[in-house]
Amino acid sequence: MKIGMILDNEFTGDLRVENEIISLQNAGHQVYLLCLNFGNQKPYEIFNGAKVFRIPIKEKIKKKLAGLNNTFFNFYPIFWSKHIVDFAKSNKINALHVHDLWMLNSGLRANKKLNLPLVADLHENFVEALNQYKYANIFPNKLLISKKRWSTSEKEWCQKADALITVIDEAVERYSGLGIEREKIYVVPNYINLKTFEKYSIEQTIIDKYSKYFTVVYTGGFDTHRGLETLIDATKILVNRIDNLKVVLVGSGSNFNSLKQQANKLALTEIIDFEGWQNAALLPSYIKAADVGVIPHLKTKHTDNTIPHKLFHYMYFSKPVVASNCNPLIRILNKEQAGIIFNSGDAADLANKILSIYKDKNLAKIYGENGRKAVLSKYNWEKASQKLIELYDKLEKELNG
Q: Which of 81, 87, 132, 345 could pair with 110 as two cysteines, CB 3.0-4.6 Å apart?
């Protein structure tokens, strides 16, 4: 089956998209990916047998157009739908696979001319995320972006899709509540691809850099809903309780500069390392160098309906996890006894939970061992991808009559 994937970004280090492509290719399907090129990528290449086509566009222009998506100035779906139609017809695509809610309108517009099975791959609860993302809540964006309109659009678009993929069990009830038939909903979690991770080499310089410290690591995106402000406040409490403390923040995002300012104001510049965005191949080295992995996400309807890759990365490397009380994190960590939960936004509680790991090395070891065993046995991409393969095998069977 020829599957046309649509990705509203450059195809560089997106683990979920890479994993899906690899699994579908290995299952005998042919994947074609249409994505963007901000100027430094090849217009066409092969990835694990999949054919990758890139649309050239300046990143600044893309951000402006995307920011106006589903507003009165709704030009972005027009731009994308034309490219999708040309892409699908020239490659004789049999099904469309659209990543993220904000691209679903573009896929549906294009599909009026194509009439193909359309799969909506929803990485997060985007409607609720708009309440958390900084860009959607500052002037002038907050005047243009209607969260009520997005809520209405989500229901309409999801009902039109032939199948819907979500990343976590907790989200099934939510989408069912939007009138989506349960048999159309497939859970394909962000579990770790063991084959990919095992290929990454460990950078010894990073290991050596943090070898003399008790190191707390966070990897991933930066935004206000990630709760990193709480982690920095907790660091201020811990600095007088852990002599050799080092907090390592690997990633970037909208509040990167304000977080650095917060650390500077609290005199933590020698304690907290802001490593910035790093290639995915280096993340294992940072995690392996750490003593504990932290997920300080604020508890919201958004974070209660998604699951971060980093949880399973920490667990794979036998690191005890300290995470906020978001529903999926509570469920998995408590079930597997792989870490400790703290109350979202509570810096003192976070500090105490990290301190308990620091003081009880045996407990830390048990949590780490439990986490790794759980990833190797069930929280891995080989298990997660089974539903994805099942979905496309079903679509292929229906198309072949």
A: 81
Both 290 and 329 in one domain: the answer is yes
- pLDDT reported for residue 139: 63
Residue with tokens 């810096």: 347
> CB-based contacts of 130: which residues, under 8 Å, 6+ apart?
136, 145, 147, 150
- What pLDDT, in 10s, does the model give residues 320-372? 999 999 999 999 999 999 999 999 999 999 999 999 999 999 999 999 999 99
- Going from the C-alpha of 339 to that of each of 133, 315, 322, 333, 377, the distances in angstroms are 27, 9, 6, 6, 17
Domain that holds residue 101: 2-191+381-400
Are residues 22 and 171 part of one domain?
A: yes
> What backbone torsions phi and psi does residue 127 show, to the nearest 5 degrees?
-60, -45
From first CA to last CA, the distance across the chain in angstroms is: 13
> For residue 254, what are the CA distances in angstroms to 133, 138, 226, 276?
9, 12, 11, 12
Residue of 237, 216, 226 lying closest to 358 (CA atoms): 216
The residue count for the chain: 401
Q: pLDDT under 50 in the chain at which residues?
A: none
